[in-house]
Amino acid sequence: MTNGEILITMCVYMALVIGIGLFFAKRANESSDNYFIGGRSLGPLLAGTYINWLIVAKRLHAYSIVANDSITIPDFFSNRYKEKNKIIMTLAAIFILVFFTIYASSCFVTVGKLFSTLFGFSYHSMMIGGAIFVILYTFLGGFLAESASDFMQGIVMFIALTTLVVVSVASAGGPGAILENLKDIPGFLEFFGIASPQVSEGVQQLSLSGSPLFHQANPYGFLTILSTLSWGLGYFGVPQVLLRFMAIRKNYEVKKSRRIAVTWCAISLFAAVFIGLIGRAIYPAELLTKSDAEGIFITLSTNLLPTVIAGLAMAGILAATISSSDSYLLIASSAVSKNIFQGIIYKKASDKQIMLVTRIVLLLIAIIGVIIALDENSVIFTVVSFAWAGFGATFGPLMLFSLFWKRTTREGAIAGMLAGSIMVFIWKLVIRPLGGVVDIYELLPAFLTSCIAIIVVSLLTKAPSHEIKEEYERAKVFVD
Asked: β-strand 199-200 against 203-204: which pairing, if any?
């Protein structure tokens, strides 16, 4: 197998992605509505866990139409509370801009690591090249191209993950051999324990025989379990998921979309985790830093898979990166162009002007994301987890209360967004470093803080108007 053959396979794949962008370019540029949510034409195979799909998707789709046909998340919140001075819209747009810029940077880091690890190219040149590709692609096709390529990329990822699991299990000597290797790691297979590598300056140490060294297992207590489970709260607030709920073609297709999304999620996450376990068994003395360990998929693929399949597997990494980064850039730029530029600065803006501002903002976000991604030792998981917490705490509680509590007020909505977002930063940077009982993933305390702020402030302020209550009831029974 040669890296050149892998590169050719990846290039063929990327040509298909560009073709999708060109196919949807004309339709996307007909209007900002088509560009941002595809004219609400998303079918069930393209809509992108279970609880979020079950209780939020159908209600948000209906409510976004009833609430003045909202096409962005800030639009929906602003229209839901009938605000005139657009404070909610502005705050929501700003938070989306901040957290999606962080998200975009993590995607650029992924591209840089992929090509520098695989081909020995410069991390910085490959990272910047990947960012340019994503910008051009998003410029072309907008939401429909992004969603259609997501579907194709999802298939590629599914094939790559499942194939790699089967091949690598066989290479490791079967499930039994993998399990025996994991048993040798103190705490790894204990329900209330967690492995603790011996690390010096961020690098795991090796024994004289070349085996990785571990301390005795650390306890994996109730607070840690609770902190880990809190990741699920983020789904209620991430715009890239919520926007697809709004863009679904018809409400009756939500059930089919839910089944597809949850099945895909369960299989892909299981495969991804299992690949990490297999990698630990096959290459125990390699990838000894947190940053390097994120390259285990590349190492396994290039060493174990046939050339074409390995190329598809590498394209799968690009698939995940592209499908994420173009979503982030598109939603963040739309928040500024639709909600701040047209919604506040220049309300008479034409579609052409909105599209121009969108592309300018998209470019600026990408540039900032590239600057953040210049550190090639960035740990992708750490960057993503903070942005995930930011969205989950800022928008998650507000989305749930907006959809399911009629008494929520505009003031409560503002208080909830501010409380959640501020607490994410405070807990991450000030409280969590103290350790002990407060060493909890920042999403959980920030999410709870936001909920409390919404309830308390809503009850202390004037009840919503009759118009808002009437619209709330209409959304409950709306069927399209």
From this structure: antiparallel
CATH of residue 258's domain is: 1.20.1730.10
CA distance 25 to 15: 15
Residue pLDDT, tens place only, 97-147: 899 888 888 888 888 888 887 778 888 898 898 888 778 777 765 544 555
Q: Is the pLDDT score of 389 beyond 90?
A: yes
Give the model's pLDDT for residue 319. 66
Distance CA 132, CA 396 (A): 31
Average pLDDT, the chain: 83
Domains contained in the chain, number: 1
Cα 385 to chain centroid, rounded: 9
Give the CA dihedral 27, 346, 333, 372, nearest 10 degrees: 150
Helix (H, G, I), strand (E, B) or coil at 206: strand
| Predicted confidence (pLDDT) per residue in 275-305, tens digit | 888 888 888 888 788 877 878 888 888 888 8
Predicted confidence (pLDDT) per residue in 391-446, tens digit:
999 999 999 999 999 999 999 999 999 999 999 999 999 999 998 889 899 999 99
In 197-295, alpha helices (H): 222-229, 239-247, 254-282, 290-293
Which structural domain range is residue 431 located in? 3-477
User: Count of alpha carbons within 13 Å of 40, Cβ hemisphere only?
Assistant: 17
Q: 413 with 454: CB under 8 angstroms? A: yes
Structure tokens, 181: 């290797």
The 10 Å CB-count burial string (b at 16+, else e) for 85-109 is ebbbbbbbbbbbbbbbbbbbbbbbb
Q: How far apart, in whole angstroms, are the C-alpha atoms of residue 263 and residue 101?
A: 29
Task: Classify residue 273 by burial, with Cβ atoms within 10 Å: 0-12, 13-18, 19+.
Answer: exposed
pTM: 0.79
pLDDT at 397: 97
Strand 193-194 and strand 218-219: the pairing is antiparallel
Taking phi over 0 as left and psi of -120 to 50 as alpha, with beta for the rest, 288 belongs to alpha
Q: How far apart are CA 400 and CA 92, in angstroms?
A: 15
Q: Answer whether 249's CB lies under 8 Å from 41's CB.
A: yes
Residue 31 pLDDT > 70: no
Q: Residue 450 corresponds to which tokens in the numbers above?
A: 């936001």
| DSSP for residue 196 | -
Q: Using alpha carbons, select from 105, 96, 111 the residue that is nearest to residue 331.
A: 96
CA distances from 206 to 274, 275, 278, 302 (A): 23, 22, 19, 24
DSSP state of 217: P
φ, ψ of residue 406 to 5 degrees: the values are -65, -25
- Give the count of beta carbons closer than 10 Å to the beta carbon of residue 397: 29
